[in-house]
Design goal:
alpha+beta; 18% strand; elongated; single chain
Length: 96
């Protein structure tokens, strides 16, 4: 019996990664993982929660002063985070 429609695992994974929804979730995960590298260890330690919803990155920060400082750097942070992933994953950041 021959398997005429067989595919390699690499081909199947490549097709899966090309699906828009899966690719978007993968990029969101990469962006969240790069948060600490972009903002540094001090900010990372004061970050309680981080998630993405509707292309908005929500970040819960412990320190009000740090939160204010990060708000002033929002556009730079958006550019750096998107650049770390290689595509535009987020359009805004909200500090909670």
């Amino acid at each position: 019996m021959k398997k005429q429609d067989s595919q390699t695992i690499a081909n199947v994974l490549q097709e899966l990664l090309q699906e828009d929804r899966f690719c978007q979730k993968l990029n969101e995960t990469k962006l969240i993982e790069s948060w600490g590298e972009i903002v540094g260890e001090v900010v990372k330690k004061r970050t309680d929660d981080i998630y993405i919803k509707n292309k908005i990155l929500f970040v819960k920060i412990q320190s009000p002063a740090l939160k204010s400082d990060l708000r002033m750097k929002t556009s730079d942070l958006i550019q750096s985070l998107n650049r770390s992933v290689g595509c535009n994953v987020i359009q805004d950041i909200r500090f909670l």
